[in-house]
Specification:
The chain folds into two domains: 43 residues, no CATH class; 44 residues, no CATH class. The chain is 15% helix and 31% strand. It contains one helix and five strands. The strands form two sheets. Strands 1-4-5 form a three-stranded antiparallel sheet, with no helix packed on it. It has a two-stranded antiparallel sheet with strand order 2-3. The chain is elongated, with a radius of gyration of 20 Å. The two termini are 34 Å apart.
Amino acid sequence: MTRYRIRLVEQSILEGSGNFTVDADTPELAATVLLKAHEAARDACSNLVVLADGQSRRIDPREVIDNNLFCIQLDETGDEIGGEIKPDDGAPPIDTERHDSTGPTGTEPWPW
């Protein structure tokens, strides 16, 4: 039997949203206004998106909308080799779905 170094990886996609009304010539330009406002908030280490007209919404992604679980083989120094190793059809099903981003206590966020 061979010994392997394997990294287990779980990736979660979180969702948070806020609705705005934006005057623009096209929906794409309206979206650009929001994306730039969001970028400005992130640059300020904030989750409060504020538009020039004063509209503001706190975008606080907490709802997990998707998870991806896989493994990666590592070499002797811990560097990744090969691609993602996903559970195959013969493996038992893995339930990675969570309904929020709270940690083990249900009230505190996960520590990462």
